[in-house]
Amino acid sequence: MIGPAIQALASHWRLHKIQLGTLLIGIALATALWSAVQAINAEARASYARASAQLAAGQNDELHMPGGFIPVDLYVTLRRAGWQVAAVLEGPYRTEDRTLRVMGVDVLAYPALPAFSEARDGATQPDLAELLTAPGRLFVRPELSAFLAGRPDLPPVIESDAVPPDLILTDIGVAEKMLGKPGQISRLVVLPVQPMGLPSLDALAPELERVAPSEAMDTAQLTDSFHLNLMAFGLLSFAVGLFIVHGTVGLAMAQRRGMFRTLRALGLPLNLLVRLVLLELTLIALLGGAMGLVLGYFLAGALLPDVAATLRGLYGAPVEGQLVLRPAWIASGLAMAAGGTLLASSQTLWHLSRMPLLAAPGLQAWRGRPGSARLTALCGFGLIAAGAATPLLGEGLFAGFAMLSGILVGAALLLPASLAFLLARFERRASGPVAQWVWADMRAQLPGLSLALMALLLALATNIGVGTMVASFRLTFIGWLDQRLTSELYVTARDDQQGAEIADWLRPRSESVLPIRRTELWHETGPLFLYGIIDDRTYRQNWPLIDAAPDVWVRVAAGNAVLVNEQLARRGSLWTGDRLTIAPDWTLEIAGVYSDYGNPTGQALVSMQQFDTHFPEAPNRRFGIRVVPEKATELAQALREQFDMPPQAVIHQAAIKAQSLAVFEKTFVVTSALNILTLGVSGFAILTSLLTLWTQRLPQIAPVWALGLTRTRLARLELLRSVLLAALTAIFALPLGLILAWVLLSIINVEAFGWRLPMHLFPLDWLRLLGLTLLAAAAAAALPAMRLRRLPPSDLLRVFANER
Amino acid sequence: MNVRLLAFLLFLPCAALAQGFAGLGTDAEGFKVPQRGYQFQFPADHGAHPTFRIEWWYVTANLMGDDGAEYGIQWTLFRSALKPLDSDGWQSPQLWMGHAAVTTSDSHRFAERIARGGIGQAGVTANPFAAWIDEWRMDGPDMDSLTLSARGADFGYDLKLNAQGPLVFHGDGGYSVKSADGQASYYYSQPAYAVTGTLQLPDGDVQVTGKAWMDREWSSQPLSEDQTGWDWFSLRFDSGDRLMAFRLRGARGDYTSATWIEPDGKARAIDDGALVAEPLETARTAGRNIPVRWRLGLPDEDLDIEISALNPNAWMGTSFSYWEGPVRVTGSHSGIGYLEMTGYE
């Protein structure tokens, strides 16, 4: 019995190849997007873990000097008291178009690093004498090696795959020269084995702060929010894909009711039938899942470079742009595909398992009953209320996402009821029988289309929400760039001495010369970059303050106050009027908070005089130059000639802005790509739903046709109906999308990046999206409409002869 | 022992790094080399000689605890120059390594320190004498009166050393030849320190007294290419005589050397070929077969003794690993001493 039953079940797919294709594509799409996101996240996390391992990071306690560096003498004091610590000096190293990170470790004391011991095939083994004595050696990845090769001011480079991207690993003696920080140590790693009878650290160096590895802000923590964002996108796409599966499986079951009845009448036990269908669905799910995995792999491979660029640019997170195929990823992708398919088919299977032996194979029996529609709407209300209430219960990213999903899913569940209500209104107002029929028919079609429309609603809302977020961010970012990058030219001198010469030379030739000096400090919230600024109208007029005390600039210039960036303010709850401890003996009142979208780390500004008193050794090589814009190019040329500077040492404001914007655009490439893909999937969901409905449309259309409406007109009405429903859904999606945008800007962004952005509205984008939606709906309806137009009248007539 | 010099070069933290140094035994690359007839200048020569490639201050002691147990301690400071110059800062080519150990009949505890000289983390000054790496120290007003301390994760010691006799110069007035090819080092010892002090062990402090031996040696080209390891003995006989003896094992045959030291400190160099050193028994330690019982003979001195390790497992599992521990002497002469063995794979 099993053999013939399987043959009978399989025959359906042979006859309905498009349906099978749709089902497979639905599963594949759901799996592809989900697993692409998973692959990207897994790759990024693996990169972090690899970087940690490559740098032996995150295993040991560390000693930091709050607000400063650790002098080498203090290190020697600790060592000579028995403390087994390893010195690390880190800092950014700027080249003309990239900022790299230099990590200098005491090669003799630091835990063994693979880069030092594993030379690349064919490369010469690093020689300890070369490594430890001048000029030293730099260890970088091969791609960076090409970039750094031939720079006369740098030590020779040794290629190693065991170094994270964009990092220069070297001995501390080399690093202090490259970074211009002689005698300075960023942190001390407390080694695992310590001698007995160690004197207490409080007695030896009370100024040092001991930090456990979990407390130090590491890349994984910093980027958690970013990965959560991606994951939410993946889940959304998965859900949308499942709508397709649900629709298609429902249709297939409906079409096979007669077959099921026959099989059972021939003696196939219900149990066995259900199990066979289950098996069939699982097989299809695995096949679709496998297709999805292939698709997802390529998708992830295509997106990963941009994600990597984003993570590096935004967080300095070391992500490699290459994808590795992981067995766990394949397994979880297939499991998601099978699980998702069975979940999407569960309702159908449930019905099947309860089907009376001789139930009429009518299609209406498949549909939800009015009671359940009301229940769905109620659930929707409940979810929205719960979602809106989440912020009351807790803060943080998860609360933000819980709120979002509550509102989104709730709104989706409310959609059918709302549409039905609207259509009933329209129907009452309609004049003429055809119009009345159109509205009534749409209402009748709603239950079958509702899932596809929900998918569309979600996709549209996400599109509007994320689009608004990105566009708001972009607008704010550009405005911020204009405020922050006010100098017409930016100059980087070779060294401090040339810096001083350049400043002297420029003074009579420009409106003002603004030194850019900074030093990296340690604050309890993580790394803190302290900048010194001179008193200049440029700052007073342009600096983007979001919170400020009166006469803020006067107080900063007088050395009585400090400005902090928004990230530091939010992370440390340090706002105007609070006090910031910059160094153990140096605390200033915060006079204002400025927005800062360039990086996720904390920053503070003090007067140059104060800065110089505390950090006289900080390099003084970079300057902003204010000059009449028309003269900028001329001055830049003169400067290059006068001091024999390479072109990249003098940069125009416009070039920096363009670079910054390029980084920004890259950041959101992935977001927009996922956005468009989601919309595409939901358009496909409408198509499958319409195709599903098509089979049951004939009995409804045939009487209207018989009453005199031509097939062409009917086909046109089909198109119109689809477009109308999509339009209504789009209108519902707008407020939902705006709520989404608000949550993203005010909750998720604050958590993820540490800044809160003003929301801007972009009605033109909405119009374009509406147009796109209508087009998608029309395209989805085109196939069924075309079929209707070409349908032989005999088929329509046959409706009156029998049920099918 | 000169051969430790090569050892130091091999010691450096990762094995791969060391490979670049494997050939260093044979050429001096701008470093000074020992000359026969050199006149030692003290206290200056107790200090460091940065223009020589390798150098050490090597103390071993046989001690008796107030608990009646025998103890051995080791305190070693090695200097290795990557280039023949001294400078300040991280990039100074002067590297330092310390080894310390406490050995009993059933335990062997050791620790290692590596540091750079340019930042003051390790170094040696001659007057007043101070040698240090991290918190390990050996210092005093002069070489005759020293305090010695070191700590590891599970041991520590604080000892006072008082010289009971003169310095002893090995070979030809301190010019000690190490191979038939003529490689040599400057090598002198203070073989007669009286020791008192305290050992800190996991079970508590132990007061100790006993005798210590210090070796001072520096060179730039210590080994012949074919030489693979050595066995080195410093022995104190109940008669008051002392013996320093080593055997360098090479593919072209062994090279031996010894110094017979009479109770008043008068030394007699014994040339290559006179020493008979024959392993009698090996023990399996750290995955190798190490000779832990030896027969040693010097026919001209009527010496025929058997030497056995107090603890066969005195393996120094440091960056460069070797066997070093206290020994007992029986036979024609009885006594105690220290044994070091390298190159047993």
TrEMBL record, chain A:
Residues 232-356, 675-793 form the ABC3 transporter permease C-terminal domain. It is found in: Cell membrane. Keywords: Cell membrane, Membrane, Transmembrane, Transmembrane helix. It is a multi-pass membrane protein. Its main location: membrane. The chain crosses the membrane at residues 230-252, 272-300, 328-352, 373-393, 399-423, 444-466, 673-694, 723-748, 768-788. InterPro entries: ABC3_permease_C, Membrane_comp_ABC_pdt. It holds the Pfam family FtsX. PANTHER family: BLL1001 PROTEIN (PTHR30287:SF2), MEMBRANE COMPONENT OF PREDICTED ABC SUPERFAMILY METABOLITE UPTAKE TRANSPORTER (PTHR30287). This is ABC transporter permease. It comes from Ruegeria sediminis.
Automatic annotation (TrEMBL), chain B:
Keywords: Signal. SUPFAM superfamilies: AttH-like. Residues 54-220 form the AttH domain. Residues 1-18 form the signal peptide. It comes from the Bacteria. PANTHER family: BLL1000 PROTEIN (PTHR38591:SF1), HYDROLASE (PTHR38591). This is Iron ABC transporter permease.
